[in-house]
Amino acid sequence: MLSISRKSGVASAPSLTILAITCASFIWFAIQINGFDTQQLVDAAKHIYWGLYGNLWAPMVGNPYFYAAVVAILIFERMIPAKKDQPLFSRALLIDLGWTLLAALSLATFLAVHWGFLEGLFDRYVAVYLPTLSIDLPFGAELLVAYLLTDWIGWFHHLVRHKVRVFWEFHALHHSQNQMNLFTNNRVHPIDYLIARTIRFAPMMLFEHFLEIALVYLAFSALQDRFNHSNIKTNLGIFKYVLVTPQSHRIHHSTDPRHADSNFGVTLSIWDHLFGTQYRNYDEYPETGVYDPDFPNDLAGDHVSTKQVLHRMWEQFIYPIQVVAAAPKAQIEPRESTAASGSIASYRTDLPDPR
Question: Does residue 59 fall inside a structural domain?
């Protein structure tokens, strides 16, 4: 049986070795694909600057609409909370704000390089054989078709990140929040971002107007995603049959085994209805989190220092790497995920089955 030891959050040698080899291999392949010269250092600096601008300043810090949305969500959380004993301004919210800043940094640096790497691969090995799709429709109609396809890809890559065990280990961080709030949508491991973007990349690149499509999609989904992760008690009435809602997404984050493998939609719920993954009781507001006693959950209590919080975030960052590094040593029996959304520690064989 496999047992994961956190030992004060110190990363094991195999964990750090895997991380170092992965990063070194990625950099080496990126150089082989795209070449390397001094100008690339300048371009990389520009990528980082515009990445920070595009992922932190423009959508959040320097955006008045973001503050308006935050105020509106906080008002709704105060008026109709799904979890009545959850404070508006909790340590959980501050921790998820920390993950939000880390997400902006990773999107602006490592993931910006990753995007360029994928573009290089696509241009060299795919684009020359597969022409870009150009739909002979008015731009508005093409945008609608592309939006639907992009959202379906979002549903699909979300499903894949739950069903593929290695992917789930990194996605579990997002599900570990017990007090969902308006920053929980950014509580994402950088490697989970990398996995999601890799799955989503190729289909988007096939469209002639993929950049415009991506911008429109992200503008809408970012706000809705923040709303859906908040502590708000609403299923949006009749709109729940088309849109993902705070109630339906709370079901997706649930620790109740009855809610297992349900509600994978990103902005639209139509894919869950179409493919049979929609949980159809729309009045339940369960507890959220992951079913893994070893997962380093956020610290509770009144006397927790900033240093302890940052150390726990480091533990949460390194934990999936430790699990994946230890996996080859374990005798793993195939099993179905039984907690909500596959929230069973994937490489554990010594956990009780909650069914």
Answer: no
Q: What is the pLDDT of residues 291-311, one digit of tens each?
A: 888 999 888 777 788 888 889
Q: What is the number of domains present in the chain?
A: 1
Q: Has residue 80 been placed in a domain?
A: no
Task: Let me know if residue 123 belongs to a domain.
Answer: yes
Strands (E), 74-154: none
Domain membership of residue 128 as a residue range: 7-33+111-342
Q: Distance of CA 340 to CAs 28, 146, 157, 172, 226, Å? A: 39, 30, 17, 11, 20
pLDDT at 61 over 90: no
pLDDT of residue 189: 93
- Asked whether the whole model's pTM tops 0.85, one would answer no
Question: Residue 159: pLDDT above 80?
Answer: yes
Could you list the beta-strand ranges (E) of 72-179: none
Q: Which token pair is 207?
A: 């469209």
Q: Please give the torsion angle defined by the CA atoms of residues 190, 193, 199 and 203, in that order, rounded to the nearest 10 degrees.
A: -130
